[in-house]
């Protein structure tokens, strides 16, 4: 109890020489209630411990009077107990001061207090901050760190017990009494420790659910809501929202007056919803609540008192509770930014950020500039100061579920241990290249960050730096202060160092060389530009240098150089951009400043197959190669891909793809395979005739000159992405691309090439025509050999390919003969979600063969598949359920096998609560197979399968309809399930399934209706729903099963009608 009061309880600060008080907080209330429950009934549970006399009395100022107590005597106006210890009464009440010395008396006082027991307990604990000291002695006082008092006390008791065995009879009784008392002390202490542990756990759980507001959080919410407010009642969440009262912002970010800040107030807000009057809100560190609004007697002043006891964790939660209209609009997320005429340009930029899904520093600045009118004037006066102010990310895009990148970048910059060199001219340099107005200032939300900033490895202050470090420092000084000749000499000397070495790279940066080199790019001297770019090209391979170049505005200058008539400069600038644009911010900067269009223009060069190439023509080709390299780096962004397509990159890349030079082909194919993730690029690659070139580059041109593995890898990766479309798969086969893809499977050591080749085979195997060729090439044996000792990215593709190939019966047999089934079953125990989806599909296809099913069952594969139904990924759940279907169909004793899975049937029925339609369809199909066994059908009926299936009948998804109707038809074969389906309202929706254009839906629905029609009430419902006419048409369908079910259903309805007719005239 002592540790909980010290560590968990919330106390006010000490004032006037008195100790602090327990705050009136929910956490303290929970702690007091837990202590109260511990004290009440203590003496009944532990009678001996309840009578244990404390070392010192617990004393406090009580609210109770002497008349409240009975059974005590009065001495000189003091109420005392007859029991005493060392002439000190165990109970004493003098005026309003009460003292107790046993837990039994403590329980009695609380019982006497009645409704005031919490108040009494609070007063007692406030007066006795560490009650354990009073109760058990100083040795058990609360301490910080390890508390060994219990261990020492136990050791003391053990020694006394040893002495007790040696003592004489007279002393023995006395020691036994002391030992008994110590055992009770130990018992009480252990119980108090248990209470302490309980209180600490409660406080941790309570604190973990509480989030205290900060000024930054309130400011972010206000910025968001201001941008989403306006007169439009359909799209704007509020009419307006603004700060109320003073516009002055204190250093801590609060707007409330200092004396109100002592109460936790941050600011005061006026919000006008569309469906009510203005709300006056107090933003407090404990949450947001409604105050009484402006004081009518004192203009400009607020009544700070609450209107109710409700406190909300943030502003949005409060507005949702107070305004149904606000809650409705914000839940739909159909709100728009409120555009102000003065800031059209800024809102345009912010809207572009929203579309692309990533916040930028600029968009944040616009977001934070949406201040109230009073603050706007001040912002204008302090415009330059605001630019330097650290901007916090707006919650605007968090409402839409989008992350903000600039916060991550700020955190990355703060990790630096040494400050960067001053940016003397970077701001001016950035403004030299105008930003294209049509471009978006955001990065693709789907793009993953390719590289994280590496942790700087700096030498310790007292460590010896290599001599190159000091030599580079001297050369940089010449660069800074020398004339043109000295600058060129210094640049040449710098190139003599090993610039691939990290020490040299960081040395240039640390001594301010990067800024000088970037400044040289703005000069008119071509030689200085070339020298600086050659150095930047080499050192920009370093992750930290890349980011420093971007921070110093180097990319903007390099984009400008792309327009320079000097082709050497263009090459060097493009190559340097290719190195720097390895992270999102750099790629975005290139696009924003028109770099994509200029890089695409570099691709336009002379025909590459020309026989007589002059030096000028070769330089043109080199410029195109460098441009392709830069576009390759930039193409990792979705926005950049779109910009490249608009700039006309596709036909130029198609022309370069016919080049005979590998150094040209690698960046071109690399760019294409990055862009092939977009459907528009896949269509263009197919229509521009690039598939033939990609296939051609896969092949080995001659025995003397083997194919380049890197080029093959990029070609295979491009085919992998493009082969989603059937037309592309057919072209790959027609151009002979399947043979080289299978041949690449022999490159066991090159994992990247192996992953690309297996991925291409996987997608190509979707077409049955390609599968026939893969059979001839004995592809299955090669793929099975790759099921072990391979990385997951290879396994995902290998298993995916086997799953597609296994759709053919002879291939399923071949997988078994090649020993692939045990490896596939072993992979069911993995954790990679994509791998699990593919391996379950492959195992399900293999299970279509009875001989394969014997092996799967022997290896406990069905149990593993069933366990994957517990996976949180809906794709894994669905593919596992689909795989279970053929396992049940082809297992020898399927019913017994399914029942052997403990909780298996309950698990699969519970998946009918899923919101994923693919999961529901797969589970319905599995239930249809499970229900073939009567005992299993009885079990799933007990688990409530009937109402769950009935609830799904309103679906419009034909795939789900087919398997749902099949499951209902099977489940009708037990007990009163037919009647239950009718009562659950499943019959009428099933009739509507007959309007579907899918014949499979018709067949399964007719079966279900036939089974349901065996119940008279269901027949009536069907007839009323108009089932007869569609069924009459289906009686003439070519499908015999559909004919039979339709006719049977009509027959049951007709028999019921005849029975009713007879009953009328009987």
UniProtKB/TrEMBL annotation:
ARM repeat copies, ranges: 553-595, 648-690, 778-820, 903-945, 985-1018
Compositionally biased residues, Acidic residues: 402-412
Pfam families given in the database record: Arm
Positions with biased composition (Basic residues): 416-432
Bias kind Basic and acidic residues: ranges: 369-393
Segments crossing the lipid bilayer: none
Region (Disordered): 351-462
SMART domains to which the protein is assigned, alphabetical: ARM (SM00185)
Source organism superkingdom: Eukaryota
PANTHER family recorded: ARMADILLO REPEAT-CONTAINING PROTEIN 4 ARMC4, OUTER DYNEIN ARM-DOCKING COMPLEX SUBUNIT 2
Name this polypeptide is given: Armadillo repeat-containing protein 4
Organism the protein comes from: Littorina saxatilis
Organism taxonomic ancestry: Eukaryota, Metazoa, Spiralia, Lophotrochozoa, Mollusca
């Amino acid at each position: 109890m002592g540790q909980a009061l010290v560590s968990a309880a919330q106390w006010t600060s000490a004032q006037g020489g008195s100790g602090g008080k327990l705050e009136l907080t929910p956490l303290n209330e929970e702690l007091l209630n837990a202590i109260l429950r511990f004290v009440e009934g203590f003496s009944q549970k532990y009678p001996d411990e309840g009578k244990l006399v404390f070392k010192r009395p617990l004393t406090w100022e009580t609210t109770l009077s002497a008349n409240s107590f009975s059974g005590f005597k009065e001495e000189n106006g003091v109420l005392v107990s007859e029991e005493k210890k060392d002439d000190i009464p165990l109970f004493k009440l003098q005026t309003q001061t009460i003292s107790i010395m046993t837990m039994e008396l403590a329980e009695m006082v609380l019982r006497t207090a009645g409704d005031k027991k919490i108040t009494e307990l609070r007063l007692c604990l406030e007066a006795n901050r560490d009650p354990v000291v009073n109760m058990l002695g100083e040795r058990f006082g609360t301490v910080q760190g390890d508390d060994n008092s219990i261990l020492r006390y136990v050791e003391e008791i053990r020694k006394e017990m040893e002495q007790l065995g040696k003592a004489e009879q007279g002393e023995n009784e006395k020691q036994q009494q002391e030992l008994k008392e110590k055992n009770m002390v130990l018992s009480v202490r252990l119980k108090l420790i248990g209470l302490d542990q309980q209180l600490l756990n409660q406080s941790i759980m309570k604190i973990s659910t509480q989030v205290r507001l900060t000024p930054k959080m309130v400011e972010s919410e206000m910025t968001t809501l201001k941008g989403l407010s306006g007169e439009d009642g359909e799209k704007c969440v509020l009419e307006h929202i603004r700060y109320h009262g003073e516009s002055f912002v204190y250093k801590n970010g609060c707007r409330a007056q200092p004396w109100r800040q002592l109460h936790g107030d941050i600011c005061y807000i006026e919000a006008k919803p569309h469906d009510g009057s203005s709300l006056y809100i107090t933003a407090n560190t404990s949450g947001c609540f409604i105050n009484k609004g402006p004081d009518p007697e004192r203009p400009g002043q607020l009544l700070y008192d609450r209107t109710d006891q409700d406190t909300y964790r943030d502003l949005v939660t409060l507005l949702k509770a107070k305004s149904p209209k606000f809650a409705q609009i914000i839940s739909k997320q159909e709100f728009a930014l409120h555009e102000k005429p003065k800031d059209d340009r800024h809102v345009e930029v912010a809207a572009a950020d929203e579309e692309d899904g990533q916040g930028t520093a600029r968009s944040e600045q616009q977001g934070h500039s949406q201040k109230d009118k009073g603050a706007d004037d001040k912002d204008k006066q302090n415009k330059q100061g605001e630019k330097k102010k650290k901007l916090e990310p707006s919650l605007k895009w968090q409402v839409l579920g989008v992350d903000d990148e600039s916060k991550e970048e700020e955190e990355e910059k703060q990790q630096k241990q040494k400050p960067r060199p001053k940016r003397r001219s970077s701001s001016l340099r950035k403004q030299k290249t105008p930003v294209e107005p049509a471009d978006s200032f955001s990065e693709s939300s789907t793009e993953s960050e390719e590289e994280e900033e590496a942790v700087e490895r700096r030498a310790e202050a007292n460590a010896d730096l290599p001599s190159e470090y000091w030599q580079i420092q001297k050369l940089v000084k010449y660069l800074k202060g020398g004339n043109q000749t000295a600058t060129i000499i210094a640049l040449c000397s710098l190139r003599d160092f090993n610039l691939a070495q990290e020490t040299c790279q960081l040395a240039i940066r640390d001594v301010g060389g990067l800024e000088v080199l970037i400044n040289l790019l703005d000069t008119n001297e071509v030689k200085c530009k070339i020298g600086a770019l050659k150095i930047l090209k080499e050192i920009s391979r370093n992750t930290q240098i890349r980011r420093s170049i971007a921070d110093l505005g180097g990319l903007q200058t390099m984009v400008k150089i792309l327009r320079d008539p000097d082709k050497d400069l263009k090459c060097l600038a493009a190559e340097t951009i290719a190195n720097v644009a390895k992270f999102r911010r750099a790629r975005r900067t290139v696009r924003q400043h028109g770099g994509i269009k200029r890089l695409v223009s570099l691709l336009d060069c002379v025909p590459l197959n020309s026989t007589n190439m002059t030096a000028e023509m070769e330089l043109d080709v080199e410029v195109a190669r460098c441009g392709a390299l830069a576009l390759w780096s930039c193409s990792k962004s979705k926005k950049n891909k779109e910009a490249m397509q608009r700039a006309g990159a596709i036909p130029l890349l198609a022309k370069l793809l016919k080049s005979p030079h590998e150094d040209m082909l690698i960046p071109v194919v690399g760019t294409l395979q990055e862009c092939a993730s977009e459907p528009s690029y896949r269509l263009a690659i197919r229509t521009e005739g690039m598939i033939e070139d990609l296939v051609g580059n896969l092949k080995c041109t001659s025995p003397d000159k083997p194919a380049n593995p890197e080029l093959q890898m990029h070609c295979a990766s491009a085919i992998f992405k493009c082969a989603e479309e059937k037309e592309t798969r057919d072209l790959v086969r027609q151009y002979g691309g399947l043979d080289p893809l299978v041949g690449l499977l022999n490159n066991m050591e090159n994992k990247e090439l192996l992953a690309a080749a297996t991925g291409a085979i996987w997608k190509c195997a979707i077409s049955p025509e390609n599968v026939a060729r893969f059979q001839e090439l004995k592809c299955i044996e090669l793929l099975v050999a790759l099921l072990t000792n391979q990385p997951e990215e290879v396994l995902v593709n290998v298993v995916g390919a086997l799953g597609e190939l296994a759709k053919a019966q002879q291939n399923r047999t071949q997988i078994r003969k090649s020993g692939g089934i045990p490896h596939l079953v072993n992979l069911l125990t993995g954790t990679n979600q994509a791998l699990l989806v593919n391996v379950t599909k492959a195992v399900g296809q293999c299970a279509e063969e009875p001989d394969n099913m014997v092996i799967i069952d022997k290896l406990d594969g069905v149990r593993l598949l069933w366990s994957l139904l517990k996976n949180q990924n809906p794709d894994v759940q669905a593919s596992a359920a689909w795989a279970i279907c053929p396992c049940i169909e082809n297992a020898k004793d399927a019913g017994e096998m399914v029942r052997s899975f403990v909780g298996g049937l309950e698990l699969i029925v519970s998946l009918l609560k899923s919101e994923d339609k693919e999961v529901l369809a797969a589970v319905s199909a599995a239930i249809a197979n499970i229900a073939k066994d009567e005992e299993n059908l009885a079990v799933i009926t007990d688990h409530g399968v009937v109402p769950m299936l009935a609830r799904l009948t309103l679906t419009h998804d034909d795939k789900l309809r087919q398997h749902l109707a099949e499951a209902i038809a099977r489940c009708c074969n037990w007990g009163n399930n037919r009647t239950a389906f009718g009562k659950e309202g499943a019959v009428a929706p099933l009739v509507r399934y007959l309007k579907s254009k899918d014949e499979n839906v018709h067949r399964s629905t007719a079966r279900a209706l036939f089974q349901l029609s065996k119940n008279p009430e269901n027949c009536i419902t069907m007839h009323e729903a108009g089932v007869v006419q569609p069924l009459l048409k289906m009686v003439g369908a070519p499908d015999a099963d559909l004919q039979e079910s339709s006719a049977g259903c009509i027959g049951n309805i007709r028999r019921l009608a005849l029975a009713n007719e007879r009953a009328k005239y009987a």
